[in-house]
């Protein structure tokens, strides 16, 4: 089953010269009230900084303790100030039956923030996202991040990055 794709409402390109710029972007998003029920896709090559960005975002939201990559578990759940956050990594996702067996349909239907690494591995199963971040590795620690707003909520989140 292929789900419909939302049109791109707005795009912005960010330059992260270092990890501090990544953290600043995460902090700006964390301050946006629209983040509470958003779905954000993170795309990019291995080592592009997807998990690093998620860790900065979770810290900015107030998550304490160890933040693990869900590469083998598919999902790591967090709860902070009444906000449910689900961090997904579909890098090793190979069988659509895992989607049903893991109860992911229910997780995506529930309120809360969803952060999805490697969404292309679960193509056709994921609901449309609000914001897509495409991270490209440049020289050294630099990253070019293309941020696409795919819903009105995504557009509000994108505006928070410009504030």
Q: Look at the structure and give the mean pLDDT.
A: 88
Low-confidence stretches: none
Question: What amount of the residues lies in strands?
Answer: 25-35%
The termini sit apart by 38 Å
Number of helices: 5
Radius of gyration computed on alpha carbons = 15 Å
Coarse shape: globular
* Strands in their spatial order, largest beta sheet: 1-7-6-2-5-4-3
| Helix/strand order, N-terminal first | EHEHEEHHEEEH
Largest sheet: 7 strands, mixed
**Structural category:** alpha/beta
Helix percentage: 25-40%
Q: What's the count of strands?
A: 7
Write a structural description.
By secondary structure, the protein is of the alpha/beta class. It contains five helices and seven strands; from the N terminus they run E-H-E-H-E-E-H-H-E-E-E-H. A seven-stranded mixed β-sheet has the order 1-7-6-2-5-4-3, covered by helices on one side. Strand 3 and strand 4 form a beta hairpin. The N and C termini lie far apart (38 Å).
């Amino acid at each position: 089953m292929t789900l419909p794709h939302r049109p791109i409402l707005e795009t912005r390109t960010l330059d992260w010269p270092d990890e501090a710029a990544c953290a600043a972007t995460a902090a700006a998003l964390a301050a946006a009230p629209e983040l509470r029920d958003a779905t954000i896709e993170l795309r990019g090559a291995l080592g592009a900084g997807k998990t690093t960005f998620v860790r900065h975002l979770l810290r900015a939201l107030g998550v304490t303790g160890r933040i693990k990559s869900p590469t083998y578990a598919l999902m790591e759940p967090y709860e902070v100030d009444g906000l449910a956050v689900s961090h997904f990594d579909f890098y090793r996702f190979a069988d659509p039956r895992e989607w049903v067996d893991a109860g992911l349909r229910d997780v995506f239907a529930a309120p809360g923030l969803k952060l999805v690494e490697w969404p292309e591995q679960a193509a056709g199963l994921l609901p449309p996202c609000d914001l897509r971040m495409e991270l490209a590795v440049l020289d050294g620690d630099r990253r070019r991040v293309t941020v696409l707003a795919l819903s009105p909520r995504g557009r509000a989140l994108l505006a928070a990055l410009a504030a």
